[in-house]
Write the structure tokens for this entry.
Amino acid sequence: MIRMEGVTKTFGDHAVLRGVDLNVEKGTSMVIIGGSGTGKSVALKCILGLIRPDRGKILVDGTETTTGDRDAFLARFGMLFQGAALFDSLPVWQNVAFRLLRGSLKRPQAEAREIAIEKLRRVGLKPDVADKLPAELSGGMQKRVGLARAIAAEPEIIFFDEPTTGLDPIMAGVINDLIREIVVEMGATAMTITHDMSSVRAIADNVAMLHDGVIKWTGPVAEMDQSGDPYLDQFIHGRAEGPIQAVR
Amino acid sequence: MTLLAPLGALGRAVLTFMATVGRVSIFAARALSHIFRPPWYPRELFSSLLTIGWLSLPVVGLTAIFTGGALALQIYAGGARFNAEAVVPQIVAIGMVRELGPVLVGLMIAARVTSSIAAEIATMKVTEQIDALTTLSTNPMKYLVAPRVLAALITVPLLVGIGDIIGIAGGFGVAVHSLDFNPATYLMNTVNFLETRDVVSSLAKGAAFGLIAALMGCFYGMESGRGAQGVGRATKGSVEAAAVLILAANFVLTGVFFSI
Ligand SMILES: Nc1ncnc2c1ncn2[C@@H]1O[C@H](COP(=O)(O)OP(=O)(O)OP(=O)(O)O)[C@@H](O)[C@H]1O
Ligand SMILES: [Mg+2]
């Protein structure tokens, strides 16, 4: 469903992506792992067209993302940003229901609010946060509001950029289950970036490891432990020694 | 090689300048075109009208009243040297309406509105809120830029009109209380002296300055670099650009309206 072919992106003289090839099938959950600063977030933003790749093709359902109606294209996506990216002038519920309050998916305000509160509940937040401003919430709560916003309009394709960082282990478990549920029950296609190996095992159908601007290894999560790939092994076991330099 | 280096630097500076002019022009054209094309965001427009127009009233009023008062004192003192003290009402009126009203209001708006627009949009850019808007199928040019530009276009001329009146009132107050002018005569002289052209030019300048102030805030905000430093640079750059452009536009518009 999502296909990246030879995608490159350079910022100044810093080549971040150097030819990323990746395929994500419809209704599956892909987890992207890789060191900090290797370009995982940049890769997701390239798919959404927030960053324009220098070279390469990105196809969704076989059509290039740069062609066609951009609004209709984006309406199929939900995205949780790494820093949550909540609109700080709007109360929490209006953040969550943002898409439902305007544009093609617009609904009556009361209904939108109800949906927002239901989504907040699913990410473990009580209804009383609905009328707070994002700045009044803790970092982990903001992250979960961002997650609720990403899933609010029930998009077909959902990107999660580090959904569990900053959460306690119990809440991380809740979020992992939620992501799995969205993929299995709602049939959504998900791409998740995470550094948390227990999350990887809980969420992933397939895993891709980004290193040095390319996908070093990709395959089903079950094969991850027997890959024989020294980079992947070092990463999943969190060893300081190995082919990946500790200072990058 | 070394002889040509200054030339090279000059060339680069000129090129950068031209490129910026080009980008600003394209940005302005896009912003204006979004004002006329749906979807519109009335709620955003309303809150911009409030913050840009209504909440600027105190600073505009205070600036105008003190300037008008000072102007009356100076004209009286200067006029006394030629036995021409009586021209105070006329010169205060013309000075406020033609030049000081629009310019001071414009500069106050640059300080108050441009800076806050730039800082707000730049912070949104830095914290990925602009990216989030886009992914939520909302065009930031329509949602953030168009309402602010339209609100400034509507309210700054009104602010200038109010500033003109308050400035004249300041001059009137000083003239009547300290300089022994007759209130009725003062008002009569003011009203009879001002022409339609004076008022029209004042409001037109207001519209132009409002446009410049809002556009510069939005442009520098949207072009902001990363991090807190990026926000700081965007804010500083927007106010500098707005102030200089307002003064330059004032010169041009004065030429257009008053050179014959
Ligand atoms: N807009 C940008 N301008 C310049 N450089 C950028 C930009 N966005 C990202 N980069 C650079 O690209 C590199 C990859 O960034 P990215 O955010 O994708 O990392 P990441 O893999 O998501 O890391 P992390 O796990 O820490 O979030 C970084 O070195 C960053 O400095
Ligand atoms: Mg990242």
